[in-house]
Design brief:
The chain is mostly helical. The protein is built from 6 helices and no strands. It starts with a helix and ends with a helix.
């Protein structure tokens, strides 16, 4: 499954009954809850990275990607827009890109 596929599944599940879909239930709680859940998953991934548990890090990283896409869905941000932003930054030094934000 690609991230595009997953984003499409999330968009479809957003239309489902919150009683029948975890994704719909989370989205029904609003963007702030989606952001909170994304943050929780990111922290869990960080913990597994520090512990050097590759299997758990892999699992938590999958959760992070899923919840990132849910958070984007909750605010109407398309994955294609994020990918376009990454493409725009391609070939630019990370140091130069960060300096340009100021």
């Amino acid at each position: 499954m690609t991230l595009d596929d997953l984003a499409a599944v999330i968009a479809e599940r957003a239309k489902a009954d919150p009683e029948s879909s975890w994704t719909a239930k989370l989205l029904a709680k609003g963007p702030e809850k989606c952001a909170e859940k994304f943050g929780e998953e990111a922290v869990e991934a960080i913990i597994e990275a520090v512990k050097n548990d590759k299997a758990r890090l892999t699992s938590e990283a999958a959760d992070v990607l899923f919840h990132l896409l849910v958070m984007l869905q909750s605010r109407g941000v398309a994955l294609s827009d994020v990918m376009a932003e990454l493409a725009r930054r391609q070939g630019t030094s990370g140091i130069a890109e960060k300096a340009a934000r100021k």
